[in-house]
Amino acid sequence: MTRPATVRTRVPHLLMAAGMLYFLVPLLWIVIAATKNQADLLSSPAMWFGDEFSLFDNLVRLFREDGGVYGDWLLNTAVYSGGSAVGATVLASLAGYGLARFSFWGKRFFETALLGMIMVPATALVLPTYLILSNVGIVNTMWAVILPSLLSPFGTYLVRVYVAESIPVELLDAARLDQASELRIFWQVVVPNIRPVFVTVFLFTLVATWNNYFLPLVMLSDADLFPLTVGLTTWFNTAQQEAGTRVLFDLVVTGALLAIVPLVIAFVLLQRFWRSGAAAGALR
Amino acid sequence: MRRRRMTDHPVAGALFVLPFFLVVVAFLVVPLGYAFWLSLSSKSLALGEQFTGFGNYTRAFTDPVLLDGFLRVLVFGAVQVPLMLGIALVGALTLDAVTTRFAIAFRLIAFMPYAVPAVLGALMWGFLYSRTFGPFADLPTAFGGAPADFFSADLLLVSLGNIVTWAWTGYNMIVLYSALQGVPREMYEAALIDGASQVQIAVRVKVPAIRQAIALAAIFSVIGTMQFFVEPYVMSRFAPQISAGYTPNLYAYNQAFAYSDFHYSAAISFALGFVVFVAAYAFVLSTRKRRSS
Amino acid sequence: MLGINRSRTLVSVLTVAGLLAATACGGDSGGSDGGPVRVSVWAWYPEFKGVVDAFNASHDDIQVDWTNVGTGPDQYAKLKTAFTAGTGAPDVAMVEFQQIPTFLILDALVDMGQYGAGADEDLYAEWAWQQATDGDKVFAIPVDGGPMALMYRKDLFDQHRIPVPTTWDEYATAAEKMKAVDPDAYIASFGSDGGWLNGLMWQAGCRPYGYSITEARDKVKIDLTHPDCEKVIEFYGDLVERDLMATDPFFTADAAAALDSGKYWTWAAAGWTPGYVAGSLKNTAGKWAVAPMPQWEKGADEHGDWGGSTFTVTKQADNPEAATVVARELFGKSEEAWDIGLNKAFLYPLVKDVAADPAFTGKAYEFFNGQKVNEIFVPVSEKLGDFDYTPFQDFVFGDLLDRCAEATSGQREWDTVLDATQKNVVDYARKQGFTVE
What we know:
The complex is a heterotrimer. Chain A has 14 helices and no strands. Chain A is mostly helical. Chain A has two domains: 10-53, no CATH class; 60-283, MetI-like (MetI-like fold, Orthogonal Bundle). The longest helix of chain A has 47 residues, at 55-101. The two termini of chain A are 21 Å apart. In chain B, helix 7 runs antiparallel to helix 8. By secondary structure, chain C is of the alpha/beta class. Chain C folds into two domains: 37-145 and 307-361, 3-Layer(aba) Sandwich (D-Maltodextrin-Binding Protein, domain 2), CATH 3.40.190; 147-306 and 390-436, Periplasmic binding protein-like II (D-Maltodextrin-Binding Protein, domain 2). In chain C, 42% of the residues lie in helices and 15% in strands. The chains are: A mainly alpha, B mainly alpha, C alpha/beta. Chain A: The chain crosses the membrane at residues 12-34, 78-100, 112-133, 145-164, 185-207, 248-270.
């Protein structure tokens, strides 16, 4: 990756500065808003701090509200997204490799169908999946969120493309001459070579599950099982609709900030993997 | 002579694919089949369930609420997708040509919104748009105008478009930027020596070279637009102007979860999926054709 | 359920059996082995944990497992999916009055009359009992309601010598005077809330719906274009058009800030509002007062209700008899429960004795500068008459509010709102197999 670093004109930098402002302002707002209590939130200027610095107070209350359920949500979100991401990555890697380097009955059809699968709207699947899973008896359990999230046609597609580009058949043939089993070849030859796309698929499914709202909303009815997205929305609705006494806007804001921070950090640190994956996806 | 690319090892190959295949069957094929089955019958509140064949589909394609919602999403996409991809492309080309620390910072920051869950992003913007919490509503007053009402009928689509643009521009920029990194330098080395400007190279060489990536980004954006749901769903709590059938997907949701008509809801989802599918494939075909001619 | 058994076998085979073992411990409902019967409850009342604890402490044979699965529409969505799936619903569910027929037609509710719930008739406000029952059949046990009255900024009305309106005509006049004093202020907000609008129509003598599942499952009355209904929409539409009334949705941060900053001068509110406003408005505490609702005719004494909820027993209850006990006694006559309900959750009690108790009627509210506001709300609840809902009230409110939204944004004339809603609702009802009267 060698690029001339000679262009230092003003216009591109101005454009980029404007872009940064646009992308940052909402995030800055939520950081500032999380330091305010309910009264300051309603009365102080939006982009500046309130009379009191209530961040720590908000955090303490956040983890105490409803018997500390926010901690559960945080943990649930990590378990759901971690579990789905690991599972989906393993499945996608096996399948992507199988599709890229083997021929078997029905393969062509399956590959063509793969593209169609990417386009199936997830929301259309949630309801029938719920009706089916409820008869198996696993709705309102963590499996109802994790199992459907294992499905990642895009991940399989990415791995297939990547293997086709980066693992020559000769390498596999050489291993086979050494009497290595297919599974061992996969583990010792293929996996080390597809590590970047491995991470990419992992990240994609991790984010997809971390951000998922509709699936857990429909599948779960027990507040202890909610992920952050569903839980915080429940609080927001309580604050917004309930003709009750709890006005929770400050906690919703603080909780949202805390839900975003880990992902933002992970993104910034792992960005090169996104790019390699995105490039693989864009090649075809 | 074509290089051999495949291994004739049918059993092993099939076994590698099997686990994924099972998940596909369990969580895609079976639910889809079940939804399709549901869509072929109707359940009216008073009369109960009866088989109606494609009756739900005739109803869907003549339902003015659904058609209005569909039209709204089309108009939305026709403006928002080109705008977003245009900004993303300019950003990606800038990143490809400028490699200062500032540019790296820009790249990182532009990507951040993608890390924000769509529900929380919509909630956040709901606050940002409000008169009480947000910094934007009073901006026009600085120029002597009336405070902006981002939830009004006039501005609502713009407000929603901004949320989507904010969340997805950076992501698309990274996709296009990665594609640009794959463009071999030799393709424009000569032009550089001839004194062509960066802008000329960008327009004449780089953009055509990553046409495929742009098309792919466009397809995914169009699919996303057709399935528009979370943002209007969340925003409806702030904006009464978001009606039950504001977008097709919101309509399908309300049919199922508010009106208990799971059969019609399934039919709407299918009809929508079908249209998206046809549109996406037509788009793929048209870009292929243009390339080969 | 159509085809569900077929897919069930398929998925059962496909789903790894070991995963299922992990959930086997999820089974509930004891009782058979001699322990107490466990009854699951879905409800979103604030401070409800204390109420559940009080019930469990006072019952040995029945224990309640409470879950808050979400507010209003969120919980209903879950109930509807659970009834479609045939499994997953709780034994007892909190349901608002206007939703009772909706769940009746889904065949979701148990008649508690067969377990003796009819004995509670005299306990509850008449209008509430009428909505919760159908003849001898008891489908719901009332808990809280929302008799309506007018909240207003007493300090501002006094300061500018604007008389507190006793009729809606005077209300419009007050709105004009208020606008002359403060051009940025509004008399109130037209809040895009189905229950609120319904309460106003109720007060105007409008009875747009009629339904009785015991008489005829498939007959429904829709009469939204009655003059008594039209006058409400036209009156409020006129205020909105003349910019005397704002259009913020209720309970948003914007609406709360507007109430708390002098932007809104009144709010036609309900018996539960004192709790909500005292909890969320700080700047204007002590400046508000409550007056009876303005009347359509001078000297009349007509009233409406906004909001209120009940406990129902679902058809999926393992032990409907025990569930009925829970529905009747979670609040019912429980002093502990009502202590929490009144003083922490700020519910308006539909149990007549609780509402009439001096501890409630005589309570002075700091937020209302010491006014005993319940002296106004309680008689309202006593005077409320019958009111019916449709078995598809979500659709009706949804369509009505969508048409109102069109009118507020200038895409529709206010006097066509109810015509359009009437037409859409009748079309919908016919498609759903009803005969419409």
